[in-house]
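pinned: reference chain
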Amino acid sequence: MRAVLQKVVQASVTVNNKVVGEIGRGVCVLVGISNDDTRDDMEYIAKKIIGIRVFDDAEGNMWKKSTQDLGLEILCVSQFTLYGKTTKGSKPDFHDAMKSDRSRQFFDDFVERLGQLYDCSKIATGEFGAMMQVSLVNDGPVTLELDSRKFSYEKPDPALAAKLAAKAAAKEQRRNVFGQKTNAKELDTSGD
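pinned: its structure tokens
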């Protein structure tokens, strides 16, 4: 499960020129659900949303208070495109996103769980499956990516790094040799 959390002064969702969800100060969260997400993923993201410290304390110290600490609002918007792959071609591939028949219930259960952990009266949503216009005033700006699978970007294994560097060097050497042969042929034909 993925989420993009933005600290906001205010946010709203409009469908067909009608506001269907709005909040004041708090967080606006775009929520993506993958094919293999479980209740564990749901629990992780819900707890992270209400507990992550993106607000200042009373003395103005940054990163000290959470949405829950300050009793602020949350706007959740379903966003299957968070699972879009763009590595091949020009058209995004959304096969990793949970299909709408299952994801609608999963999203509803997620919002319900968020309300159980926090306060359902402080949670607003968009309209699942609709074309929505999301408006917000980002405060900071602060935008964070959350992922229940906790992917990390670690340095590669030194042996693997050396192997990749050797392959790159060999490829560059082949390019240089090919370039020298091409230049030599051009020199030979220029004398005719």
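why pinned: Residues 158-190 form the longest helix (33 residues). The chain has a mean pLDDT of 90.
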